[in-house]
Amino acid sequence: MHNLNPSYPQARRATLIGGVINLLLSIIKMVIGIIGNSQALVADGVHSLSDLISDVMVLYATKHGGKDADDNHPYGHGRIETIITVAVGILLIAVAIGISADAIDRLFHPEQLSSPGIIVLFAALVSILAKEGLYHYTLRVATQIRSNLLRANAWHHRSDALSSIVVLVGVMGTMSGLEYLDAIAAIGVSLMVAKAGVELSRESIEELIDTGLKQEEIDTIKQTIQGVEGVRAMHRLRTRKMGANAIIDVHILVDPKLSVSEGHHIADRVESKLYEQIEDISDVTIHIDPENDEEVTPCRALSMRSELMERMEGCWKDVPESRLIKDVTLHYLNGELELEVWIPLGTIESMARAQQLSETLNNCIVDDPEVKQVRAVYF
Prior knowledge:
Largest sheet: 3 strands, mixed
Shape: rod-shaped
Subcellular location: Membrane
CATH topology of the largest domain: Alpha-lytic protease prodomain-like
Family: Belongs to the cation diffusion facilitator (CDF) transporter (TC 2.A.4) family. FieF subfamily.
Transmembrane segments: 14-35, 82-101, 113-130
Domain Cation efflux protein transmembrane: 17-209
Membrane topology: Multi-pass membrane protein
Number of helices: 10
Number of strands: 6
Distance between the termini: 42 Å
Strand content: 5-15%
Radius of gyration: 33 Å
Oligomer: single chain
């Protein structure tokens, strides 16, 4: 397992700073919203509280989701983050529905509309500046430690700054005599909260059902694999997310006559290139194919070596040179077997005898439905 999890201490520090700021802002905005008669600021305070929940999620997921794989979790613990994200997303949607329902009720009952005071403007301005600063700080740390989770949390901070701007505009309009603007602004903020909840839930649910990576990421993966020397083609590429990381399974086609070790070396090179080119990848499984097993006749029903050699040796027993055979290489291709019989050249008295021996070996497979060819290799 190739571990790409961020440095926990740095992520923890950035998240704790964000959590403290979010807690203070949520309290300030909700208290001032109540005192200043601004439903929109109260809703914005709830949005800041949702960021606090997000911070707690990031802390927990970074600590526990970053644990190494074990016997019970062979792909790691990244789905801890995913499950928590779904829960938080659903919570945000529920909160947004409640805020919107209350704001709409106020619009239909003008006597319930609030008249925000000037203190609300200052609270909104403080929120905008604080959250924008927190966004830039968190994004910088996320870039340093290559953490997609922390980067997403940074954008969550910015969404709170944007919602505070909506509040600012709504309150200013209400103070100008348009009393209904504060309620409309509250609805606008609730829609932002709902949007965040829907996106968090949707992306996480897609991960839980093993939805593949985006097409542009898949294109990059294909280009990387096909750019490795020795890879003739590829198929059965499967991708999925595990927390912030990606997992890849792929079949690559190599020369069918390569040695096992060379095929393995090509697979190692493909794996290394994928890790170099795509930082999100945490695990790669590569299956080496001598041919495209989606297009050719499968070989799985053919005899194994022991059974095959028993048949061949029974046929070759009357050939004097058969005792000189040093090795037999089997090639399982397109539903048939090809044999390479390795014989020391110095043991063959003439080229004519070598040709005759090759013909004799092939005569043994005339009635064998599995073997296509026997080729004598003299070395």
